What we know:
Largest sheet: 2 strands, antiparallel
Radius of gyration: 17 Å
Strand order of the largest sheet: 1-2
Oligomer: single chain
CATH class: Mainly Alpha
CATH superfamily: dinb family like domain
Amino acid sequence: xxxxxxxxxxxxxxxxxxxxxxxTAASLSDEQLRLPFQIxxxxxxxxxxxxxxxxFVWLEALLGNDDPLVQGDLPGKLPGNQQGEGGITDLxxxxxKWIALEQRWSxxxxxxxxxxxxxxxxxxxxxxxxxxxxxxxxxDVLLHVCTHAHYxxxxxxxxxxxxxxxxxxxxxxxxxxxxxxxxP
Length: 184
């Protein structure tokens, strides 16, 4: 497997986990989704919105927008409602927006070349070095999106468990591989 194939596989896995998180979240009440926790972004709902926002912002950066921002990623710092949800109305709306975003990701990932992985991607920081413009190797940005998603997914799974989800989502890469092996 070459580097491009590996990056594409990790992003396929990221998208699969996102879908599993949303499916499990759909089994919860709105009260359970917004139950406050001392981890992640403070609730299942806010963590899912943050995960979507991060994937949106980083894709924009990869496509050349060095100052991307989506409402919901920085609660309290952007216009919008008190929850920092950036106009995302409910779980169905989030799922719809995420499906559209994932289609954009798929197109982008299909265009990667081994040479493009070494190029620099520029983005203004919204955290470390707030406002500073950083150049980061494209391969590192692509890996960061996956590791951030994995880290956030683990927090969401923990919150789902504590919120009383009946069945926790599959989040392990080996589960995806085994699931694919069972397909005809």
